What we know:
Blueprint: E1 4-10, E2 28-32, E3 35-38, H1 39-47, H2 49-52, E4 57-59, E5 66-68, E6 76-78, H3 95-112
Antiparallel strand pairs: 1-2, 2-3, 4-5, 5-6
Amino acid sequence: MRPSCRNASVATSRPGTTTTSSPGRHPCRCHGAEGDLDEFGLIDRFFAAADCGRGDVRLGIGDDAALLTPRPGELLVAAVDTLVEGVHFPSGTLAEAIGYKALAVNLSDLAAMGAEP
C-alpha cells in the first residue's frame, strides 16, 4: 500500500529537541501503511536509480532532477517538485502565484543540473 500525502504535516522542533532535516530539505512527512516518510524518503524508496532497472535512466531522481536518455545521443533532464497548500503556500493564494512558484522551483532544479533549452 502506498503512503498517503493527503494528511501531510510539517515536522516542527520542540524546545530541547532538534529536527533531523538538513538545511534546504523540506520536513513534510507523509503518514501511511508503510510508516512515516519525508520527501527524500519517498524519493529514495520509489525513485532511486538502483531500483529503477531502466537503461534510459542515466541518473535517477535525487535532490534536483533525473537525467534520462530518451534516444541515443539525447539527454533529458526531468524535474517534478510539487507544492502543497499550507506547507509551501498559504490557503487562499492566487493560482497565478502558485503557478509562478511551481515554475520557479522546477526551473531552479533544472538549472542546478546544468540543463539548457
